[in-house]
Amino acid sequence: MPIFRIYTNTPKSEIPDGFLLQASHFIAKQLGKPESYVTVRIHPEQMMCHGGSTDPCASVELLSLGSLGPTNNEHAKAISDFIEKHLKIPRQRFFINFVDLDSSNIALGGKTFG
């Protein structure tokens, strides 16, 4: 049930075609979760700055039931590589916030996971 959210000041016109599906597949593989549970949201053209500059930047969030914690360093490297490659945002220009969700706080199909 991963949710991958990217807020960026990158213009919508510079988001590559197919990015959402590429990101969905990437997150499913990275976390070992079924892609049918993955949600990806990108919010381009945000008014934002990072480190006192409005150069291309982002705020990245990965929420998941499990698959986070001790492996976050591996995830951070893989996500940074992915964002640099596809969105051309340098890894020094975004933070990644990892959130390990409680199963009783997430529902799908009218029923919580825990």
Automatic annotation (TrEMBL):
Q: Which reaction does it catalyse?
A: L-dopachrome = 5,6-dihydroxyindole-2-carboxylate; 3-phenylpyruvate = enol-phenylpyruvate
Q: What enzyme category does the UniProt record give?
A: isomerase
The UniProt entry lists the main location of this chain as secreted
State which Enzyme Commission number(s) the record gives. 5.3.2.1, 5.3.3.12
Q: Does the keyword Isomerase apply?
A: yes
Which UniProt keywords are present, listed alphabetically?
Cytokine, Isomerase, Secreted
Q: Name one GO cellular component term.
A: extracellular space
Q: Name one GO molecular function term.
A: dopachrome isomerase activity
What domain of life? Answer: Eukaryota
Task: Please name the Pfam families in this protein's record.
Answer: MIF
Q: Does the keyword Oxidoreductase apply?
A: no
Question: By its UniProt entry, which InterPro entries does this protein fall under?
Answer: Macrophage_inhib_fac, Tautomerase/MIF_sf
Provide the protein's localization. Secreted
User: What family name appears in the similarity comment?
Assistant: Belongs to the MIF family.
Q: What is this protein called?
A: L-dopachrome isomerase
Gene name linked to the record: MIF
